[in-house]
Amino acid sequence: MLKRFALLVTAAAVLQGCGVSMTRYEPNFDNVQILKQQAPLSAMNAPSVVADKGLDSISVRTNPIRSPDGSLSKHVQQALEAELRLAGLLEPTASRHLDVQLRQNSLTAGMGSGEGVIGADFKLSEGSTVLYSGSKTVTSTWDSSFVGAIAIPAAANAYNPLVRKLLAELYQDPAFIKALKQ
After folding, report:
1. Is 9 a domain residue?
2. What is the pLDDT of residues 153-173, one digit of tens each?
3. For the segment 67-104, what is each residue's pLDDT rounded down to a tens digit?
4. What is the pLDDT of residue 48?
5. In this structure, are residues 69 and 102 in contact, taking their beta carbons and an 8 Å threshold?
6. How far apart, in whole angstroms, are the C-alpha atoms of residue 65 and residue 152?
7. In the chain, how many domains are there?
8. What are the two backbone dihedrals, phi and then psi, of residue 16, each rounded to the nearest 5 degrees?
9. Segment (H or E) for 134
10. Interhelix angle for 29-36 vs 72-86, to 10°?
């Protein structure tokens, strides 16, 4: 009986894994170049990113995936700020402001493939005037494993490419670029 219990505990530990931290977002050269190639664009102050209730953290197979920035909204905000800064578009005294509301935020690690979704509403304003308003949603799939110790870190590693893809969708939106040129 004790051997069965030990085997069950061991199997559960192997299949579940444990909570992991994702890596810090590294600005993407292609994303920065998209913005630089559209110059001249008006600068903005630091963007604000918030998440709908329950979307500021993610669990995969009941294991928390942690951001080095604390919350996932802060993770996305740091990514956005880094790319805007490298593109020369972040200015603390600028009158333009970008508000981002995370509406979808999920990672799953199935028994063969993983899936992720990030969706957000973006609003660029100057004072009380809205210059741009749009929603973007991106998805991704990756190879996953039956073993939690492999599948959960793979899901955590898939989050930054999703963020990169979300920001690229924003930067490639002609209406967003037009608003930055006003």
Report:
1. no
2. 999 999 999 999 999 999 999
3. 999 999 999 999 999 999 999 999 999 999 999 999 99
4. 97
5. no
6. 8
7. 1
8. -90, -45
9. strand 129-143
10. 50
Q: Which residue has the tokens 């199935």?
A: 110
Does the pLDDT value for residue 6 go beyond 70? no
Q: H helices then E strands: how many in the chain?
A: 6, 7
Residue 62 pLDDT level (bands cut at 50, 70, 90):
confident
Enclosing domain of residue 81: 28-181
Helices (H), the chain: 2-16, 29-36, 72-86, 148-157, 159-171, 174-181
pLDDT at 106: 94
Q: What are the structure tokens assigned to 1, written together?
A: 């009986």
Query: Tell me, what's the pLDDT at 19?
Result: 67
Q: Over the range 29-55, which residues count as b (16 or more CB within 10 Å of their CB) and which as e?
A: eebbebbeebeebbbbebbebbbeeeb
SS3 category, 105: strand
Query: In whole angstroms, what separates CA 69 from the centre of its chain?
Result: 12
d(CA 54, CA 19): 18
Q: What CATH number is attached to the domain comprising 101?
A: 3.40.50.10610
Angle at 111 between CA 165 and CA 1, to 5 degrees: 140
Answer yes or no: pTM beyond 0.70: yes
